[in-house]
Amino acid sequence: MDTVTLQHEIEQTLAPLEPGVEVLLVEAIAGDGLRLTVDHPDGVTLEVCERVTRALEDLRERYTLEVSSPGRERPLTKPAHFTRYLGRRARVRTRALRDGHRTFTGELVGATEREVTIAAETGVIAIPYDDIHRSNLVEE
C-alpha cells in the first residue's frame, strides 16, 4: 500500500466535498487499516471526522478507516506546514543517519520548497524533505 498515492487520492476526493479539511498524514496501521490525520480551520470535531469518513465511502470498502485530529504534536508533512510553524519546536526523524543522528529536535528556523532548517541540540542542520521519514511539533 503506497500511502503517498492514497493521500493524493483522499485529498482529491475530499477537496470538493470538504474544502476546509486538510489531510496531514495517511498511515498504514494493522492489517488493512488506514489512519488519517486531518485538520480544519475551525478545529477537528467529531462531526468533521464523521463527515470525512462518510465522504470516503469507496475507500472504506478497501480499508478500515480511522480519522483523527492532529493533537498538540501535529505532524508536519508538507513544506507549507514547516513554514507555518517557524519558530516552534519540532522533532524531525530522517531516513538515514545525518551527522551520526536520525532524530533532530529543536526550533524550526527555516523552510524552503526543498528543505527545512532546524536548530537542534547538535547544531543547525538543513534537511531535504525527501530525507525526512517523519516529523511533528513537540510541546514547548
**Which superfamily, in CATH terms, is the homologous superfamily of the largest domain?**
RimP-like superfamily, N-terminal
Euclidean distance between termini CA atoms: 35 Å
CATH class of the largest domain: Alpha Beta
The total domain count is 2
Shape descriptor: globular
Strand order of the largest sheet: 7-6-5-4-8
Q: Main beta sheet: strand number and arrangement?
A: 5 strands, antiparallel
Question: How would you spell out the order of helices and strands?
Answer: HEEHHEHEEEEE
The low-pLDDT segments are none
- Number of alpha- plus pi-helical segments: 4
Radius of gyration: 16 Å
GO cellular component, one term: cytosol
InterPro entries: Ribosome_maturation_RimP (IPR003728), RimP_C (IPR028998), RimP_C_sf (IPR036847), RimP_N (IPR028989), RimP_N_sf (IPR035956)
Keywords: Cytoplasm, Ribosome biogenesis
Pfam families: DUF150_C (PF17384), RimP_N (PF02576)
What does this structure look like?
The chain has 140 residues and is an alpha+beta fold. The protein has 2 domains: 3-68, 2-Layer Sandwich (GMP Synthetase, Chain A, domain 3); 79-137, SH3 type barrels, CATH 2.30.30.100. The protein contains 4 helices and 8 strands, in the order H-E-E-H-H-E-H-E-E-E-E-E. The strands form 2 sheets. The protein has a 5-stranded antiparallel beta sheet with strand order 7-6-5-4-8. The protein is globular, with a radius of gyration of 16 Å.
